[in-house]
Write the structure tokens for this entry.
Amino acid sequence: FFSGNEFPFEPNVNAAFGGTWQHHTGLTATLDFTYSGNYFSQVANGPELFVDSFFLADFRVGYERDHWGLFVFGDNVFDADYVDSVSRDFADPTMSTATLGRPRTVGVILQANY
């Protein structure tokens, strides 16, 4: 029935690149990039279940000492609009539901290690 279809949630290409810089004074910075190629979000592989590729960038900058840290972070810093998944309503096959990806998020983290 589904012979020859692609596996759901398996992008044709997936890539991630990132790095962290740490200074002996405690300053630290992290930058991450993620790319997800297009994929189908259900085994049926219908065109309404197709998810386009997307690119995300995240960062974290801060100060860290022995038992604590203070950081500013940003996720999806370019505020990319993307769909994470699409599902078909089995009760009404003419309807589909999409889950949107996370929007740009910026915040502060106070971290305690014990």
